[in-house]
Amino acid sequence: MSLKKLFLVAMFVAVVAVFGASTVQADPLPKITICHIPPGNPANWHTITISENALPAHYDNHGDFPGNCSANCEELCDDSNPCTIDVDQEAEDCVCLVEGVPVDCGPITACAAVSCDPESGCLSTPTICDDFNECTADTCSESYSGCIYAPLDDGTPCGDGQSCNSGVCGEAPPQM
């Protein structure tokens, strides 16, 4: 091969290498991590990574939100019942408890009953101590495990012009 042909082949290869083989590529759009809530199966939420240009469709059509699903576990698992624990606190990832675990509102005591109302949450209802005797002070005492009906002082007014005597309402004793 002549030097002239060799030079032409070398130039052709150089031109193809510089211009022919290169294509203009746009920088890829940044990727974003979102918590995806599938429209047909909202209980099957999962974390995905999408292109930035797909973000509006996910936010507008699916109710997806930015970040990992695990970061929003309480919101995703909430069954709107304050009487249940909805998230497995022992799990490393976000695990919803399908049935929910009843909330422990505290122990029942001698002076209060404890319950949970699905609308309000934990409620403590005090024990009503009433012996329907107006000559006793009716109270509840945890240390005595319940109601105490202590007699009022003798002479405490009660009824219609009567007074208490040893915890009983009756005629006032004659004055001496």
Which key phrases capture this entry?
single chain, 176 residues, alpha+beta, three-stranded antiparallel β-sheet, 3 helices, 33% strand
Helix content: 10-25%
Largest sheet: 3 strands, antiparallel
Total number of helices: 3
Global mean pLDDT: 82
Q: What is the helix/strand order?
A: HEEHEHEEEEEEEEE
Sheet/helix structural class: alpha+beta
Evaluate the radius of gyration: 40 Å
From the N-terminal CA to the C-terminal CA, the straight-line distance is: 151 Å
Strand content: 25-35%
Shape descriptor: rod-shaped
Low-pLDDT stretches are none
What's the β-strand tally? 12
Tell me the strand order in the biggest sheet.
2-1-3
Structure, described:
By secondary structure, this protein is an alpha+beta fold. Among the domains are: 30-67, no CATH class; 112-159, no CATH class. It has three helices and twelve strands, in the order αββαβαβββββββββ. The chain has helices at residues 3-20, 55-62, 73-77; strands at residues 31-36, 46-51, 65-66, 84-87, 96-102, 112-117, 121-126, 136-141, 146-151, 157-158, 162-165, 168-170. Strands 2-1-3 form a three-stranded antiparallel sheet, covered by helices on one side. Strands 10-11-12 form a three-stranded antiparallel sheet, with no helix packed on it. Strand 11 and strand 12 form a beta hairpin. The longest helix has 18 residues, at 3-20. It is rod-shaped. The mean pLDDT is 82.
